[in-house]
Task: structure prediction
Amino acid sequence: MDFLLTLWNYVLPFLVVLTILVFVHELGHYWVARRCGVRVDVFSIGFGPELFGWNDRSGTRWRISAIPLGGYVKMAGDTNAASMPGETAPELTPEERAVAFQHKSLAQRAAIVVAGPAANFLFALIVYAILFATVGQPFTPPEVGAVVPASAAEAAGLRVGDRVLKLDGQNVRRFEDIQRIVQVQPGVPLDMLVQREGQELRLKATPASIELKDRLGNVQVIGQLGISRTGIEVIQHDPLTAVWRAGEHTFDMSGMILKVVGQMIAGTRPANEIGGILRIGYVSGEATQAGLVSIVNFLALLSINLGLINLFPVPMLDGGHLVFYAIEALRGRPLGARAQEYGLRVGFALVITLMLFATWNDLVHFRVVEFVRQIVG
Result:
């Protein structure tokens, strides 16, 4: 019974979330490729052997594969699913060259590659816009309602009634912006511009480092100023405003994610916060049980993550392709097949290493490693 509950509450939501995001990403590649005159041979959700599929009128094989942990679009002329040239690329007839990805212009190839991450960002924007137009957007004025004694806010000189205009060089439109900026920068001094009784003041606050524990007892460190808002508002926007606010929110979330990644690279944030498929599956289940709005919000956030990750300049990822295209634009000709093949191998090794590291973090996070040690010990 416990196994069936886990399957229903966590595994199934995870697979649904992952399938939606992979489909959106690959659909971006597919749609632009077809607009550029590229024939798409395979559109696969998952890897490995095909479970079932069908052919459409344009000759694309739409398939569901056995390993539901990703997907790919294989285009005409590709020697592999990563769309990287191989050393033994087959000779193509003029008709085949006309619809082959590798024989399209540099601008067309770049557009096809960018379309995947762009689709993820667009999907997140659409999801947020629908939420903001129907359920509403949390929107509270960035005014200080209370200051916790002996807190970072009190040490910085913040008072009740202060309105935060800028924080860490970023414009603040609502109280939620303050939370977003502060939480990812524990212990980091932040410049503040506040309005007090009609005058602007410059202050400096260093958020305290607060440890939060999840239901499994795992600790996450976040920043905290020690202020509360004047109240909580939820504003339901008209469609045009909802789209605009959704664009702002998507941009803000992208910046927050990149800042966290930068902190991990710099070593100012623990790398054990990097989660893999186990943690994503767990959060998917928790979000699903919290309700429709929660899972939809999580879906949009994960879509932004997927778009950003794929833009990292690592061969095998979309960003790696764009690096090769940038070099091609500067040189006036593409890198040789051997150089790109070596780059693909390095990228594959980096991706596998990151996946193993994330999986190890998941095993530690869920105390699987501790459980095994107790058995062995």
